[in-house]
Design goal:
The complex is a heterodimer of chains A (390) and B (252). Chain A has 390 residues and is α/β, with parallel strands linked by helices. Chain A has helices at residues 2-35, 61-67, 76-91, 114-123, 143-151, 166-178, 288-301, 309-313, 344-350, 379-389; strands at 51-55, 98-105, 129-134, 159-163, 184-187, 189-192, 195-200, 205-211, 218-222, 241-244, 256-263, 277-281, 304-307, 334-338, 355-359, 373-375. In chain A, helix 5 packs across helix 6 (166-178) and helix 7 (288-301) packs parallel to helix 10 (379-389). Chain B is α/β, with parallel strands linked by helices. Helices cover 29% and strands 30% of the residues of chain B. Chain B has 7 helices and 13 strands. In chain B, a hairpin with a 5-residue loop joins strand 7 and strand 8 (155-162). Classes of the chains: A alpha/beta (390), B alpha/beta (252). The interface between A and B is large, with 92 and 80 residues. Strand 11 (256-263) of chain A pairs antiparallel with strand 9 (165-172) of chain B.
């Protein structure tokens, strides 16, 4: 019996070693395919654990100040992406899919936002593990260094999810291409682990797209309004595990340097994508004073201000207030469209809104076909009246 | 500096989109097509750089069926110096397009690749980033201002629009930049330009010539129209509106 035991021990160890080798070899292949370099950087075991990896959106200082009230120190977009990962988890049959989140940044930077971000992510319900990448090259979360980071992970996720914000949209396709994957942008609906719904033609068409079963990782960006996140009400008792990724290779920003940033202060007015009330102006807004009336209404309601392309071109508002196909997708409870005709390109941005109110003195404006309540009147009279009566 | 501009032929932006009777695709038969508006802006920026002496060549490239040549001719009429058509009747995904563009960029030693930030049909907003990743070049998406710091430093300064405002980046060439609507106002083609473009040769290649794998990884299973919103309730006064918002919709 002793002999049989010894024999079994030897063979089982041999099998375990070969299966681990196979797993490691797969990861090595992944790295070679990715960028031609072979570097195993993570200290964790091979990627045999089924998990989806969410790339956390960097938290700017302004966001931190605003989100302190919501008792969360991660961006809304990150929470929405984790929410999408949770939906994916419920739809994955068989082995339980873990939810891992990658947080990159630089502890040595002037304002070290990495630590609060890591703590914030650990607190998010549903997150199993946080991968932390700390290096000066990641200070501004630029696409090139983050791409090489994601190519060097030893653990290979089944799915790679990024927020559908400007930042996520800049990063995810680059990473996906280096991994040989075709990503999906602005996923509205997850039908199963390989089937998703996303808008096309400025939201005029909803496409159900299936990714090839052999695709790994399945990459997509999340349309935030479709995956509303609820901030955690209290700290989790058992927080997510944290793993610090180790580096011995000097990472660079790959020929990109951030010179300056000019960001909106979200403590004054909520960000468009997070606001529960949005007041928007379009062609009917002719002067800065009229635009000021819209801002006053937005402030009265505690909401954000949006614009259509006409006002951006006229120089009356910056581009980051643009709502539409090439701007922001908003999902407020109340959307007030003042002087907006309702072109398809704008409607693409407001489809997810709760109640749409249209104010326009043209009774044939297409906006009235999508609005819930309409008032055919001059916005110069109506908007101040609304502000005073509310 | 040699500039490469990728362009795409799409359904004209103001055309109402209709689905085919069997919902298998979008109706394109007898539908007005045009160059993707973002691509027009990319060409305009490239041509301006050529006119200002920063670029010696502006090559346009498009991946698609033979009808793409119409769009390439429009680009030549607008001031591009040469055109390449990668002929394929298959539906090529952004990954496939990016792989092909990477080969073209390598073949013609491009220093700067300009692309529209998204195409108004699929709204993917991916090709530029994927191309930059495959080439290992710096990227700047959603750019509205591009300044060449040449010939001293071989750098470009790009101001791009981000979620919360603006970001100014410096990129080392060669680089990929995708443009947004605010970059410039594209010119109209002049008659002499159109006539000259008619005679210019277009290089026609195929995906096999580059040995690039363009097999799709995704498949559209079905298309549908978004759910219709209920009919609009017209009101006649502000008081009525406030009342409805408060009592019926209950959003305030």
């Amino acid at each position: 019996i002793l002999l049989i035991n010894m024999f079994l021990n030897v063979t089982s160890k041999f099998c375990l070693r070969t299966s681990l080798e196979r797993v490691n070899r797969c990861d090595q292949l992944l790295h070679t395919v990715g960028n031609g370099r072979l570097n195993l950087k993570s200290t964790s075991l091979g990627g045999s654990l089924l998990h989806t990896l969410v790339i956390a959106e960097p938290l700017k200082e302004a966001n931190m100040a605003a989100s302190k009230d919501k008792r969360s120190v991660v961006s809304e977009a990150t929470m929405q992406a984790v929410r999408a990962a949770q939906v994916l988890q419920t739809l994955s049959s068989g082995e339980k899919m873990g939810i891992w989140v990658l947080v990159a940044g630089s502890r040595s930077s002037k304002c070290n936002l990495l630590n609060p971000a890591v703590q914030g992510v650990r607190d998010l319900p549903g997150v199993d593990k946080v991968l932390v990448a700390d290096h000066p090259a990641y200070e501004h979360q630029l696409p090139a260094p983050l791409t090489s980071l994601l190519n060097s992970l030893a653990s290979s996720p089944s799915h790679l999810i990024a927020p559908g914000s400007c930042w996520g949209t800049a990063i995810l396709p680059r990473v996906a291409a280096t991994l040989g994957a075709q990503p999906l942008s602005q996923v509205h609906n997850i039908i199963d682990t390989h089937t998703f719904q996303r808008p096309m033609y400025a939201g005029a068409v909803l496409a159900t797209v299936q990714v090839s079963p052999s695709a790994r990782p399945v990459c997509f960006t999340v349309c935030g309004s479709s995956f509303p996140a609820t901030a955690p009400l209290q700290s989790r008792l058992h927080k997510a595990e944290v793993e610090e990724l180790q580096y011995d290779e000097s990472e660079t920003t790959g020929g990109t340097w951030l010179l300056s940033e000019d960001l909106r202060d979200v403590t004054k007015r909520p960000a468009l994508t997070d606001a529960s009330v949005v007041v928007s102006g379009g062609r009917g807004v002719k002067t800065k004073e009229q635009f000021g009336m819209l801002e006053a209404l937005a402030d009265k309601l505690g909401g954000a201000v949006g614009v259509t392309r006409v006002l951006v071109d006229a120089g009356m508002a910056p581009h980051d207030l643009l709502v539409g196909q090439s701007g922001k997708i908003v999902s407020p409870k109340l959307y007030i469209a003042a002087g907006i005709s309702g072109a398809v390109q704008h409607l693409a941005g407001i489809q997810a809104s709760g109640t749409v109110v249209a104010i326009n003195n043209d009774p044939h404006a297409p906006i009235f076909q999508v609005a819930d309540y309409g008032l055919i009147a001059d916005l110069n009279k109506v908007v101040p009246e609304l502000t005073s009566k509310l | 500096m040699k500039i490469l501009v990728g362009i795409k032929r799409v359904i004209e932006y103001s055309t109402k989109i209709r689905l085919k009777a069997d919902f298998s695709g979008v109706e394109t038969n007898l539908v007005k097509m045009s160059m993707n508006p973002f691509c027009e802006i990319a060409i305009e920026e490239a041509v301006r750089l050529k006119e200002n002496g920063y670029a010696s060549e502006v090559r346009v490239v498009s991946v698609g069926p033979s009808s793409s040549q119409e769009t390439l001719r429009s680009a030549l009429a607008l001031g591009a110096s040469s055109a390449t058509h990668i002929l394929t009747n298959r539906n090529v995904e952004p990954l496939g397009v990016a792989r092909l563009l990477a080969e073209v960029a390598r073949k013609y030693d491009s220093n700067l690749v300009l692309l529209g930030k998204q195409s108004i049909d699929e709204d993917n907003s991916q090709t530029g980033q994927m191309l930059a990743g495959l080439l290992g070049w710096p990227q700047a998406t959603n750019a509205f201002k591009l300044t060449v710091l040449w010939p001293e430093n071989k750098l470009v300064e790009v101001v791009r629009e981000v979620d919360a405002g603006l970001e100014t980046l410096r990129l080392a060439l060669p680089a990929v930049v995708t443009v947004n609507l605010r970059m410039n106002s594209p010119r109209f083609a002049t008659l002499p330009g159109i006539l000259k473009a008619k005679k210019q040769p277009i290089e026609i290649l195929s995906a096999q010539d580059f040995g690039v794998d363009i097999t799709p990884h995704t498949q559209i299973m079905k298309l549908e129209l978004p759910p219709k919103r209920p009919a609009c309730k017209m009101v006649t006064s502000v008081d009525e509106l406030i009342n409805l918002i408060r009592t019926e919709a209950k959003v305030i």
